[in-house]
């Protein structure tokens, strides 16, 4: 497996940084319990309800109404994680004004997209089980593709080319996964 990764997944995209082992297993369990304790809503898009359950803090983007609005403040339990995300991405912690928590139940994924253009940096923490983040970019001769493993307790930072030029997606898993993503405004 590691040889496969070396052959096919490196070099990572310009603008994509990842690092494993940023949380202890105990911290991971605590975060999962906190996410499960908040009221999560099924992601909705054009009248269609996804299996992905989410809640956003700081700013919310409603896909149904395409509206962008301030929402409830980030909860205290996300603050230490935000510190770590900012340190990893070398950003001012106060610039990470939005947090999105997601639970992917078995069978839930996220389709091809770029994050909303109102946001700039995206820093994500993966919890529970490993997933693969796939990237694609249209070229004259078809899609160029990459895929990057997201280990549980790992962090990633999307900026620059990886953030703006490539779409990303996560295929549904047979096991649950949780994520927390922090974003700065453009
Ligand atoms: O679950 C993740 O790590 C990615 C989520 C994502 O791409 C998004 O919310 O825009
Ligand atoms: Fe995204």
TrEMBL record:
Which GO terms of the molecular function aspect are on file? demethylase activity; oxidoreductase activity
Protein name, entry field:
2OG-Fe(II) oxygenase
GO process terms (BP):
demethylation
Superkingdom, natural source? Bacteria
Q: Where are the transmembrane segments?
A: none
Residue ranges constituting the Fe2OG dioxygenase domain according to the UniProt record: 95-186
Species per Swiss-Prot/TrEMBL record = Sphingomonas turrisvirgatae
Which PROSITE patterns does the record cross-reference, listed alphabetically?
FE2OG_OXY
InterPro entries recorded: AlkB-like, AlkB-like_sf, ALKBH4, Oxoglu/Fe-dep_dioxygenase_dom
């Amino acid at each position: 497996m590691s040889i496969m990764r070396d052959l096919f997944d490196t070099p990572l995209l310009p603008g994509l940084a990842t690092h494993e082992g940023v949380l202890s297993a105990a911290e991971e369990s605590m975060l999962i319990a906190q996410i499960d304790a908040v009221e999560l809503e099924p992601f909705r898009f054009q009248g269609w309800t996804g299996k992905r359950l989410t809640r956003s803090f700081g700013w919310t983007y409603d896909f149904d109404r395409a509206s962008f609005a301030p929402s409830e403040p980030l909860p205290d339990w996300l603050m230490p994680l935000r510190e770590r995300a900012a340190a990893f991405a070398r950003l001012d912690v106060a610039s990470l004004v939005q947090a999105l928590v997601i639970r992917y139940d078995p069978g839930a994924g996220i389709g091809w997209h770029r994050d909303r253009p109102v946001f700039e940096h995206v820093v994500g923490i993966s919890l529970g089980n490993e997933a693969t983040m796939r990237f694609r970019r249209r070229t004259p001769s078809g899609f160029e593709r990459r895929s990057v493993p997201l280990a549980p307790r790992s962090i990633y930072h999307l900026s620059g080319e990886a953030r703006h030029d490539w779409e990303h997606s996560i295929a549904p898993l047979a096991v649950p996964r949780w994520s927390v993503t922090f974003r700065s405004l453009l």
